[in-house]
Write a structure and sequence with these properties.
CATH architecture of the largest domain: Up-down Bundle
CATH topology of the largest domain: Amino acid/polyamine transporter I
Distance between the termini: 60 Å
Shape: globular
GO molecular function, one term: L-amino acid transmembrane transporter activity
Order of helices and strands: EEEEHHHHHHHHHHHHHH
CATH class of the largest domain: Mainly Alpha
Number of strands: 4
Organism: Karstenula rhodostoma CBS 690.94
Structural class: mainly alpha
Transmembrane segments: 70-94, 122-143, 149-170, 182-203, 231-252, 264-286, 306-327, 348-370, 376-398, 410-429
Number of helices: 14
Number of domains: 2
Protein name: Neutral amino acid transporter
Radius of gyration: 22 Å
Helix content: 55-70%
Domain Amino acid transporter transmembrane: 44-436
Length: 461
C-alpha cells in the first residue's frame, strides 16, 4: 500500500498513476504494478501506432475493392473518407476520455459512467462479441490463406481448427507491450502482401476469376447501381475496416503516457486511410467485377499463393490481437479489484487461459458456421461495429461537456454528436439487414459455402 507522503504523480497528477520510491506503480485500472507481475503499462507512442494499425489494416482492407465494385469507384471513395472522418473523431474522443477518466479501461467502463449498470453490460458485451466475431473472420481468412497455399491440401474445416489453435496460443501472451513486436511483423506482412497484389493486378493479363478466353478489359464502374441491401452491406464493410476504434481503449490504457495517444492516432488514421484508398482503387480499377473476396485471391494462381503466403502472418496477428482484446475484457472483469489481476498467481493464470481459450473456441465456431468472408465482414461491421464505433463516442463527448458553457462551438458539437449517434444507429439497422440478406443469398447460390464445409474457400469472388 502506498502512503500519500510516498507518492509522486508520474505525469503531473492528471493520469491517476503514482510511483513510490521503490518504483512500484499504482494504476487506476490494474492496481499496484510490481516486478512480481506483468507490466501492463509498457506501450510507447510508436508501439501504439503499430498496434492500432494492426487492429485496423488486416481483414478490412481485403474487402475494400469488393465494396467499390458494389458502390462504384467515386461513391466508394467518398463513403470511405466520410467514415474515416467519423471514426477518426471517435478515436480522438477515446483518447480524451481516457485522460479525463483514468479508471476507464474499456467500453464497458464507459457504459457504466454514461448509462449505469445497463450501459456497463450492453457496451461490454457488444465489444466482447465484436472482437470475437472479428477473430472468427480472421480465423476464416487464415483458413482461406492455407487453402490457397496448399492448393486445398486438406479439408477447410481442419484449416479453421488449426488457425484457432495457433491464434489461441499467441493471444494468451499477457500484455500488449509483449505483443507489439508481433504487431510490427504483422503490419509489415499485410502491407507487403497487398502491395504485391496491387502491382500484380496491374501487370497481369487478367484477374484469376476472369474468363480465360478472349481479350480481357476491366469492367470497373465509376458509379454503381446497387440495391438497398447491397449498398448497406457495402457501407458496413467500410465500417468494419475502421471498426478497431473501441480497441483503442485497450491500447491507450496500456501506454506509458496516455496523453501521447492523439499523436499516435493521427499517424495511424492517416496511414490507414491512404492505404485503403490506394489499394482499393488500384485493385478494383484493374479487376472490375472479377475482384475476389478476400481481395488477395484476385491475382493469378501463382501470385495468389505468394500474396497469401506473405499475408499469413498479418492475418494471424490480427486474429491474435482480437482474441487478446476480448479475453482481456473478460479477465479484467473477473479479477478487477483483487490482488490476482497484476500477480502471476494460480487464479490469475486460470482466469487468463480460461478467457483466451473460451474466446478462441467461440471464434472457431463462428468461423465454421458462417464461412462466407464478405458476408461475415459486413455483418460484424453492421451489427456490432457501428454500435461501438459511433454511438458511445457521441455519448462520451456529451457526458464530459453537457454542463459546459453554451457557446456556438458547444452547440455545433452537440449537433455533431447527435448526428454521429443517429447515423450510427441507421447504419447498424440497415447494414445488418443487408448483410443477412447477402449471407442468405450466398447460401442459396450455386456453390455457396456451407457450415463446417470442406470446400475450398480460396476461390470466392
Amino acid at each position: 500500500m502506498l502512503h500519500n507522503d510516498e507518492k509522486i504523480a508520474a505525469d503531473g497528477g492528471e493520469s491517476g498513476d503514482y510511483v513510490d520510491t521503490q518504483g512500484t506503480t499504482q494504476d487506476a485500472v490494474f492496481g499496484e504494478l510490481t516486478e512480481e507481475g506483468p507490466n501492463y503499462r509498457a506501450v510507447g507512442w510508436k508501439g501504439a501506432v503499430v498496434l492500432m494499425l494492426k487492429t485496423q489494416i488486416g481483414l478490412g482492407v481485403l474487402s475494400i475493392p469488393e465494396v467499390f465494385d458494389v458502390l462504384g469507384l467515386i461513391p466508394g471513395v467518398i463513403c470511405l473518407i466520410a467514415i474515416a472522418i467519423c471514426t477518426s473523431w471517435s478515436g480522438y474522443i477515446v483518447g480524451r476520455f481516457k485522460v479525463n477518466h483514468p479508471d476507464v479501461y474499456g467500453l464497458d467502463d464507459v457504459g457504466r459512467k454514461i448509462l449505469g449498470r445497463l450501459g456497463y453490460e450492453v457496451f461490454g458485451i457488444a465489444f466482447a462479441l465484436f472482437c470475437i466475431f472479428v477473430a472468427g473472420s480472421g480465423i476464416l481468412g487464415i483458413a482461406t490463406s492455407l487453402n490457397a497455399l496448399s492448393s486445398h491440401g486438406a479439408c477447410t474445416a481442419i484449416f479453421v481448427a488449426v488457425a484457432a489453435v495457433v491464434c489461441f496460443s499467441l493471444g494468451s501472451i499477457q500484455t500488449l507491450g509483449r505483443i507489439s513486436w508481433l504487431a510490427w511483423a504483422g503490419t509489415i506482412s499485410i502491407l507487403v502482401s497487398i502491395l504485391i497484389l496491387t502491382i500484380s493486378v496491374g501487370i497481369q493479363d487478367r484477374p484469376s476469376s476472369a474468363p480465360t478466353e478472349g481479350e480481357f478489359k476491366s469492367d470497373y464502374k465509376l458509379f454503381g447501381s446497387p440495391g438497398a441491401a447491397e449498398a448497406f452491406a457495402a457501407l458496413s464493410s467500410i465500417v468494419f475496416a475502421y471498426a478497431g476504434v473501441p480497441a483503442y481503449f485497450n491500447i491507450v490504457s496500456e501506454m506509458r503516457e496516455p496523453r501521447d495517444f492523439t499523436k499516435s492516432l493521427v499517424y495511424c488514421q492517416s496511414i490507414m486511410t491512404t492505404v485503403y484508398i490506394a489499394i482499393g482503387v488500384v485493385v478494383y480499377y484493374y479487376c472490375g467485377s472479377y475482384v475476389a473476396s478476400p481481395a488477395l485471391g484476385s491475382a493469378g494462381p501463382l501470385m495468389k499463393k505468394v500474396c497469401y503466403g506473405i499475408a499469413l502472418l498479418g492475418l494471424i496477428v490480427s486474429t491474435t490481437m482480437y482474441i487478446h482484446f476480448s479475453a482481456k475484457y473478460l479477465f479484467i472483469r473477473s479479477l478487477r479489484g483483487t490482488t490476482h489481476l497484476a500477480r502471476n498467481t494460480k487464479t490469475h493464470w486460470v482466469a487468463w487461459i480460461g478467457s483466451t481459450g473460451g474466446v478462441a473456441l467461440t471464434a472457431y465456431v463462428i468461423a465454421s458456421a458462417i464461412p462466407v468472408f464478405g458476408g461475415l465482414v459486413s455483418l460484424v461491421g453492421a451489427l456490432l461495429g457501428t454500435l461501438i464505433c459511433f454511438q458511445p463516442m457521441g455519448g462520451m463527448w456529451l457526458y464530459d461537456h453537457w454542463n459546459k458553457a453554451r457557446t456556438a462551438k458547444w452547440t455545433m458539437m452537440v449537433c455533431w454528436c447527435f448526428f454521429i449517434i443517429i447515423s450510427g444507429t441507421f447504419l447498424m439497422i440497415s447494414g445488418t439487414y443487408g448483410s443477412v440478406v447477402g449471407i442468405i443469398d450466398s447460401y442459396n447460390a450455386s456453390g455457396g459455402s456451407a457450415a463446417w464445409s470442406c470446400a475450398d474457400n480460396s476461390n470466392s469472388s
